[in-house]
Amino acid sequence: AKLDQPDGGDKKMSPGTQSILNFLNPNDIESIEVLKDASATSIYGARAANGVVLITTKRGKTGSAKVSYSYDFSYQKYSDIYNLLSLKEWMQVRNDMALENYMWNNRVAPYGTKTMKEVAANPYNGIQLSYPYTDAQIAAAGEGTDWLGLITRNGRINEHNVNLQGGSDKTQYMLSFNYFDQKGIVKNSGLTRYTLKTNIDQSFLKIFKAGLNLTMTRINNDNTQLGAARYENSGIIRSAIQMSPEVKAYDAETGTYPVNPLLAKQPNPYSLLTNTDQGRTNRLIGNVYIEARPLEDLLLRGALGIDHAQIDRKTYQPRTTVNGNANGGVAYIYNTNNDQYLAEATATYHKTLADIHNVNFMVGASYEEFNNDISELGNNNFLTDAFLYNNIDAGTGTKITKSNATKNKMESYFMRASYVLMDRYLFTGTMRADGASVFAKNNKWGYFPSVALGWLINEESFLKQTKWLSNLKLRLSWGQTGNADIGTNAFASFAAENAYVNGNHKTVIGVKKGKFDNPDLKWETTEEWNLGLDFGFLKGRISGSIDIYQRTISDLLNYRLLNSYQELPKVMSNIGKTQGRGIEVMLNTRNIETKDFGWTTNFTFTMYRDKWKERTPDWKPAVYERANDPIRPIYARRADHILQIGEKAPAAQPDLLPGQVVIKDLDGYKRDASGNPMTDENGHFILTGAPDGKIDDADTKLIGSRDPGWLAGLNNVFRYKDFEFSFMFNGMFDRKIEDPTMAFYGINSYGVAGSGLNGLKTNLERWTPTNPSSRYPSAFYNMGRGKYYTSGDFFYQNAWFIRLQNVSLSYNLPKKLLSKVGFINSLRVHLSANNLFVITPYDGLDPETDAYEAAYPNAKTYSFGVNITF
Question: How far apart are CA 648 and CA 735, in angstroms?
């Protein structure tokens, strides 16, 4: 648990491994603040390695008790879905591919020089041309099985929230309860969350104040089989895309789920809905604090916190699924317990001298402990599916019993001093020492200082009388933070496992090394410079900020691959240095401001570039890699065009056939007299910078980064009397991605013919001898005779987008009308819609969520809600 900050506000920092936002009731959140510069984050030490998000939740306030209730209902529908071949189209593609395969295999023009007549007497492997379906069968076919329609639905969300708060001068309290229930747009996916939160603050004996903050959350998950796995482990969406529309979803006569006869290990998507996959998470986040103010300027504070998470997941694959049938039913039970404890003590002294000197000094110490244990049970080959995972020992298959436990500690000491002169010159300095048990003896401690300077320029005498300038503040900061999030990788681990001893048919238990130790492993350090300007004009009608920053990460913690003959393939190491530079702009305007009408606008702009600054001495780059490449690079060969009939194959691709992709010959190796590639003194290949008549790794180039070049957001809010209307756009720009689903299923006609797979309708648009003007290559684009040239960057697309993220309309009933009711203080109703449309040149499903082929579809959400305060 992240404890309350010294000012007593209920602020928590996201713990990262278990995002706290998933467990908080959104209605309990008062504000969210992102700390940007290193000076602001460095006081949090290792906890701030990936930045700091301060979440301030609501607390009780002095006054009579107030009760509020809100209800929200949301309806969800996928914003776009994969456009698959219908049964008729699929049958026609299979017929067309029967002819194309015959021509390809027999090297009939344009895939060779022969004619159909020449090969008819002696076809390849003696296989004559035949078509799977007659024209009459195709004409009589219906639409086939709509697999995506069978596994998807319209989603819905129901949310109830109740809040009670109030208090006296000495006691303030708050109690809330939230119920959230969601049914996902893919069947059998859903989440139910119960959240109970309470806090109380009590002042006593004049100088003391104590408080309790407690959040309890229960989440029940219903999961369906998703992900990028293939064959019998394919996710339900992948299975729905590639399953033949000719196959029935369910055979009522036999009580079975038919499979593709040409690819029996491909699961029936409808059968995957018979899987059982249930998760449960119980999380308790709590803290208590006590404050004492023995002197007017001195505040002493102590706090204790706990973050306990218990995670259970139980799965069962019955015989109705391909994998379950092959293994006689498969059951797994996973249990994880995570406990984090925090004790923290601070002393803060604040003093104002001569009305112009403002001094604040804080010292503190903290102790954190992290405990984690994991257990796993598994079995298969059950007599019946009836007991699911509830009788796991009854299986006669391969039993799985695993357990693991870790315990890490961190001890920290910190101090912060701030000084403000004449309310215009600001100085802050911090120093923090963190000691982490995950490192070996000589590297346990890391030391992280920071300095920040500020100048309120508008408070200077030469600007004091300037009426149009309401705020102008210059900020400069430098600071360091550390990262120790590596488990226990500085120390070797060992594992006891069963082993089969050949010859005597006995199983013995042995101990082997689980990972290598690295006693030289040390803290990863992030150093950041930040230059910022806050501004305000026309009494705050126009305000905003500009931040320019540079972030350098040294001694980066990551795995380093070892030589193949080693016992283990990798070891945690400090592998180099990265550097990122960026700019963030925020602009807020109050465009119109009258008694009955208001219009405000918020604009954000972010640009960030990161790259490698240093590599380890043993780094062995590929020929296309450079020492200062982006952190998440995209390497590919450059596609030029699709080779056409009658066009001569390029000299660098002599085996290329019509319909395949011509790759640009951009570079070549410098070679010795024997024709072998030459290297420099560092062992790196030397390139000539000119075409060499060959397509190889020398022609692979850096074509971009997986990160967007820049991001932007625009939010407008209009107010008219008791009505409020708002809309928000956001977008990512200067980005390029490969449409993964298109690459796998867009022109997979070869798989349609050979394995009975289905694919996207773009199969109908592929290059063929009779459709040479297609923008897509042929079904044989990734096949070759003697050499495979691949498609290079052909399937990469510009993927910038502008999304209408949210539109909302709300109405607050007039207090004059509510006063007639008596017991209702306020009543608000609202309508909203999320993800209404996306403007993008990208052809795939969604440019933001297409992380892998057959990704979960994004959803449009329409909501209605009411908020009442009594």
Answer: 34
Q: Is pLDDT at 230 greater than 90 in this prediction? A: no
The answer to whether the bond into 110 is cis (omega within 30° of 0) is: yes
| CATH code, domain with 544 | 2.40.170.20
Question: Of 632, 662, 685, which residue sits at a domain end?
Answer: 632
Determine contact, residues 173/200, Cβ cutoff 8 Å.
yes
Mean pLDDT along residues 251-267: 92
The values of phi and psi at residue 518, to 5°, are -145, 90
Same structural domain, 346 and 464: no
Say yes or no to pLDDT of 22 above 90.
Answer: no
427: left (phi over 0), alpha (psi -120 to 50) or beta: beta
In a domain, 253, yes or no: no
Instruction: Give the global pTM.
Output: 0.87
Does the pLDDT of residue 2 top 60, yes or no?
no
Percent of the chain whose pLDDT exceeds 90:
72
From the list 831, 815, 827, the residue with the least C-alpha distance to 867 is 827
525 shares its domain with 589? yes
Given a contact cutoff of 8 angstroms between Cβ atoms, the answer to whether 793 and 725 are in contact is: no
Residues 310 and 372 occupy one common structural domain: yes
User: Do 554 and 472 fall within a single domain?
Assistant: yes
Q: What percent of the chain has pLDDT over 70?
A: 94
Q: Mean pLDDT in the chain?
A: 90
Please report, for the chain, how many H helices and E strands are present, in that order: 11, 36
Strand partners, 55: 12, 32
Q: Who has greater pLDDT, 5 or 494?
A: 494
Joined tokens for residue 247: 């196959």
Query: Does one domain contain both 444 and 398?
Result: no
Q: Residue 321 and residue 339: Cα distance in Å, rounded?
A: 37
Chosen domain end from 419, 438, 461: 419
In this structure, the strands spanning 29-35 and 52-57 are antiparallel
Asked whether residue 596 is domain-assigned, the answer is yes
Contact 492, 511 (CB under 8 A): no
Rounded CA-CA distance 842/839 in Å is: 9
- Let me know if residue 215 belongs to a domain: no
C-alpha span between 151 and 267 (Å, rounded) = 13
Residue 620 phi/psi, 5-degree rounding, is: -115, 95
- Tens of pLDDT along 724-775? 999 999 999 999 999 888 888 888 877 888 888 999 999 999 999 999 999 9
Structure tokens at 835: 């993800």
Tally the C-alpha atoms within 13 A of residue 170's C-alpha that lie toward its C-beta: 6
Q: Which residue has the tokens 């309890």?
A: 216
What's the confidence (pLDDT) of residue 16? 36
Q: Are 358 and 419 in contact (CB under 8 A)?
A: yes
Query: How would DSSP label each residue in 620-681?
Result: ---TT--TT-BSSEEEEEPEEEE--TTPPPPTT-TT--TTSEEEP----B-B-TTSPBPB-T
User: What pLDDT was estimated at residue 566?
Assistant: 66
| Residues 629, 644 contacting (CB under 8 angstroms) | no
Asked if 174 and 164 touch (Cβ cutoff 8 Å), the reply is: yes
Please, which pLDDT band fits residue 175 given cuts at 50, 70 and 90? very high
Q: Which residues pair with 827 in a beta bridge?
A: 868
Q: Are strands 298-317 and 276-295 parallel, antiparallel or unpaired?
A: antiparallel
Q: Which backbone phi and psi does 566 adopt, to 5 degrees?
A: -70, 155
Q: Is residue 238 part of a domain?
A: no
Domain that holds residue 598: 422-492+518-632
* One domain, residues 363 and 434: no
Q: Which pLDDT score, from 0 to 100, does residue 744 have?
A: 84
pLDDT in tens, 114-155: 999 999 989 998 899 999 999 999 999 988 999 999 999 999
